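dude i think i finally got it to work??
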Amino acid sequence: MGITTITAARILKGQLENQTGEETVMTMDTFPNVGLAKTYSVDFQIADSAATATAYLCGVKTNLNTIGVNAAARNGVCKTQKGNEVTSILKWAKDAGKSVGIVTTTRVQHATPATSYAHSASRKWYSDADMPAAAKRDGCTDISSQLLTNTDVDVIIGGGRKYMTPRGTKDPEYPRDYTSRGKRRDGRNLIDEWRSMKAGKVAHYVWNTTDFKAVDPEQTDYLMALFEPGDLHFEAERDPNMDPSIVETTEKAIRILQKNPKGFFLLVEGGRIDQAHHAGRASMALHETVAFDYAIAKGLELTEEHETLTVVMADHSHPFTFNGYPFRGQSILGKSPLWASDMLPYTTLMYGNGPGHKTTNGARPDIRNVNTKDKDYVQLAAVPTQSATHSGEDVAVLARGPMAHLFQGVNEQNYVAHAMAYAACVGADLRHCQGHAEAPAVQSAVANGAGAAGG
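look at this
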């Protein structure tokens, strides 16, 4: 969710409300404190969601593809993980007596949510079936199992149920789909184990909208909601009878967590913004961003600004451009009125690389009769890649609430975790908190490629 994505989503949000769009004010636009974060990792100029999430959640820059570990850990090498684990602000908040939660539109084992609770030399070790034999032999454990053992997370909402059940277990929603069946080779059913661990508490596991809506936040201690075998559907393709919106999941999480008088930390990730960008589908990415903005609005509605710090940011950006000279009010998903020097039109939204690179006999495709507003349209790209990469420019950090001024200026991305911890009086150094009657809750919103919001 780079700045280009925010700008384009702002215009789309207005145009969906029958306005010209440019003058629209998104909820995230109203945050009074704005800064920039530098997103490079220890080993790459342009990072992935694992390294960036470790930075802004754990306060430590690390290597590509690793989560919850410092840079002494090497990608995919289990032996280097031991002794190099780093904890996240979610754990710091839990240790301080706060309630904690995760809401994502991806699988809950994906890089951003996983970094809040797991330590792994590979972001891809979703279940034990995804781990090489050497990693298991050397004592590493998969991300799904760490969801149960590392930190007592009160609210877990997203997708990824196939990584929680034994190999071949039929999915309750897609029983005939073999790709949706359980993946685990160790025979463990982590959903059943989670239920057993919460004995004596009011704990609910749900996988569809009906059961989700039946959960009473006032009477619920723990909630695990896994709505898909993998990632959730894009907002534009979501079946509301089966999967709730990110607005609904954010609301449920806050209502459960805010009962704790000591406050809460919530990470809300609009993770499918990133995945749409990887596919070169600008329409999908922007609709996901608009939905994410509505979730931010819901979070602000349910909390008090004087006691809740809300941070909205991206983990990284994408090679996504907004170009040409479109007229005021022209569809953000349309074409530039000025054609290129090859006498062919082009869209105002394009990618530097991605699956949208198409040439025939050295010529670009003629899109005069192509509906570029279609949700499945793949934007033109300058360089052919199977999936659009990330990009390396700084990302915006927007904040409001107690200590929001800490997020102004240009900072290293790992500074964000320490600033949130300082504001919430959690973590290792609490000297500044002595004599404070109560510390604020923290809401952190992340939209990335891997994703975002927290409280």
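Residues 172 and 236 are 23 Å apart (CA to CA).
im so relieved honestly
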